[in-house]
């Protein structure tokens, strides 16, 4: 199954509608919140409306990358695998946002597990990043998950390369 431009348009429109609805709800229920870097009010703040403007473009870009990879003739990946990866990242980011909101102290352990898995699985792929951002955007706004998620994907990419190098050194088929 291919991932068409119509799919990308539809998903981007849904994300845009959800982001704008969230901003409108915030506006009429106490004001649009500002999220501060490292949760410190002395550091620069990022208002939710800024992330809501950037989120549709970010979504479109990641969906373009996913479609390009899935639709390529030599791709070993199918759309079902991409959706499963997206859902896994979405669920994990929702769990982390829930734990952050209710101050449940297991986020560090979850992050350690993710870093360990990054040596084995390609957690840097666009579908993981999109799931991460969309799952945590309600709690943290969109801008902070986009920035942190992008850096996180870069670290996962480096870890995956290290993992592949170690497998080759040990003679394990990559």
UniProtKB/TrEMBL annotation:
It comes from the Bacteria. It comes from Flagellimonas meridianipacifica. The keyword Membrane applies. The chain crosses the membrane at residues 7-25, 45-66, 87-120, 140-163. Keywords: Membrane, Transmembrane, Transmembrane helix. This is Uncharacterized protein.
